[in-house]
Structures are given as structure tokens and as C-alpha cells.
Design brief:
Length: 158
């Protein structure tokens, strides 16, 4: 529950920072050189929407066992991690990782990659927790009739 509250606050803060600097988000995402123009704007919308969903759900319902917000969080974390890892591997200079829009900007570095890895670890923990918290579907046994040619036979083996 505490992890969900902390991640909910983080996602809400990220979404708020990105919404407040929405005009800059396509340029920030364009620095990763995977998307530009309308695709960068679309990606910004997807990321912000995902962060808003996670932030609101985790803060409002921290004990929820619903799997949907966990998958959304996992998707958002994977997108940010993919952007960072590919840019770092290609040696691109990204002055602002964009996690909080133009606020609390960080240069893409090992530290940002470690933060992304930590978010992926949290996503894995949430997925594991959500799966183990879901009630198992009870197996129903079908009563079998012990019949021979439509007649019941005794259970005593005779």
C-alpha cells in the first residue's frame, strides 16, 4: 500500500509538471530522436494520460487489487526507460529527461537510467503483488455418475 501511495504521488507530480509545460513536451521527447512533430505530441499525451491514471488510482485506491493501473504504470515506465536507454546507448545528449516537463530537469545520465530501472523494479513488484492478491478462481468439480448403461452401480465396488 505504501508503494502505491508513493508511486501515485510521483506519477501525479510527473503528470502535473508535464501538463504545466505541455508546449515544451514534444521538443523534450524529440531530443530522444525516436519521435518528432505529431508523434512526439501524441506520445506526450499518452505518457501524461497514463501518469494521471496511475497517480489518481494509486492515491485514491491504494489497497485496490485491480491489475489495469498496474499495467498502465508498467507501460509508462517501459516507455520512459526505452527512451532513455536507446538515447544513452546511441550517445545522444539529452539535457532534460522530461520526467517532470521543464521542472526538476535532469540531464540523461546513469542516474536517470538507475531511476528508470527502479521504476521497472517497482512495476514488477506491483505486477507480482496484484497477481498474488487476486483471488484464485475456485475449481468446480463435476459430479460424475457411476452408471453403467444408464443404471446406477453401488459405490462399494460390487
Amino acid at each position: 500500500m505504501v508503494l502505491r501511495l508513493v508511486l501515485g504521488a510521483l506519477c501525479a507530480a510527473m503528470a502535473a509538471g508535464q501538463l504545466a509545460s505541455f508546449d515544451a513536451m514534444p521538443g523534450i521527447l524529440g531530443a530522444y530522436r525516436l519521435v518528432d512533430g505529431r508523434a512526439a505530441t501524441g506520445l506526450a499525451v499518452v505518457l501524461i494520460a497514463g501518469e494521471l491514471v496511475c497517480g489518481a488510482w494509486f492515491l485514491a485506491r491504494p489497497r485496490s487489487t485491480a491489475i489495469a493501473p498496474v499495467w498502465v504504470f508498467t507501460g509508462v515506465s517501459l516507455i520512459w526507460s526505452t527512451l532513455a536507454v536507446q538515447a544513452f546507448a546511441r550517445g545522444l545528449t539529452v539535457d532534460n529527461c522530461g520526467c517532470f516537463g521543464v521542472y526538476l530537469s535532469q540531464r540523461l545520465s546513469w542516474f536517470v537510467l538507475a531511476q528508470d530501472a527502479l521504476l521497472l523494479l517497482y512495476a514488477a513488484l506491483l505486477l507480482r503483488g496484484a497477481r498474488s492478491a487476486r483471488p484464485a478462481i475456485p475449481h468446480t468439480t463435476v459430479a460424475t455418475e457411476n452408471t453403467t448403461q444408464g443404471r446406477d452401480t453401488p459405490d462399494d465396488g460390487t
